[in-house]
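Researcher: Let's continue the batch. This sequence belongs to MFS transporter, and it's 431 residues. Same format as the previous ones, please.
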Amino acid sequence: MLQKLKREVDHFRKQDHNFKILVLTNLVYALVQPVIDIFVAAYIMRNSNDTSKVVIYQLAIYTGIPLTFLLNGFLLKYFPIRKLYSAGMMLSGVSMIIMMSLTNLDLLGIGVAGITMGLSFGLYWSNRDYLVLSTTDDENRNYYYGLETFFYTIIAIVVPAAIGWFIQSKSGADAKHTAYVVITGIVFLITMIASMVCFRGRFINPIQKKYIFFKFHPLWHKLLSLAMFKGLAQGFLVTAPAMLIFKILGEEGALGKAQSIGAILAAIIIYFIGRFSKPSDRIKTFSVGLILFAIGACLNGILFNKTGVVIFLLLLLIAKPLMDLAYYPIQLRVIDIVSRIEKRGEFTYILNHEAGLYAGRLFGAGTFLVLYFAVSEDVALRYAIGIIALLQLCSIFISKNIIKQGNAIMPEDGNKAVDPKVLEETAVELL
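Model: Same format as before. Here are the structure tokens for MFS transporter:
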């Protein structure tokens, strides 16, 4: 066992310096992700008992993200990418400070906190996506995302359980509020540490300075449609577990326990899939994740009780990392292909990709809000996730088509040695 562990550590050490720094930076920042994703929503629920405010907060976040992607393209002309990346991490702590300082959770205050968190996510994800693209290649991207997801999943065991226990150990509204304030302070400290780790990297800014285009290769349009389906779930799935647990399971302590179920098994599975799977296995990985998500969402809708929520969370713990493990390498490979055909910088596609995600997020969050206001809160919580999960199954067929066309244009083993003119001629023939 120790020999196998040593072999895996040696494999990590053999990676490029920037690869290792990027993983370590995201590992430290991952410590605050469960707080941002889950307990901010729980805080809103505790102080307003209104699930619509949680979704509105999420919409504010997702409105801030694409605006910051645009802003980041401008800022990259003047600031090193690692500074912008660090600023994104630090802003997440600032957003939580704004939220905790609100005496009344009205829509304006929630909107300001949400937009600030969106600015944080926009800076973080736009720069993170480019750094992953420039630091990895198609051969080691499965390993990168498998390794990253392994740590994320392990952290998803410890952090929610620890924070849930900490909040539950306090009695009274004032004491629980103080607990949230303490957690916010710890989050801010961790983001500072993550920023310091990031500065050890030798990251280079994108070379091309123009990022906004309106015409793209048809293969890219297919990826945008895939991004839209991914965005459907993101519209409210980040906060849906918190809303379901708070409404059905009860307190934050139950939240932490429920998030920990099956996470160790999921982490081990994801790591070895990322470590040993090939690019040709991505469709299988993606399909399994989507199907597990759909099964969990439908069972939650059918049962809509404690058992249904726990089953849903258990399957989601496995399904979400499987979907991400396959989706991101597919996205980056398409960027590799179309950037060579169109002779544009890779950040162009990272920026444009956010438009597809945003369209899906609006539709996903809108589905919940329509059901909430037109019918009832219970109907929205019970059926919106199932509707989104079933719609997402279309992603299996879209991704198959993307990979088939991508491989026809640029074979997987010819990733670095294909003339752009040949690529374009092949693309025209296919289309």
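Researcher: Any comment?
Model: The CA atoms of residues 28 and 194 lie 5 Å apart.
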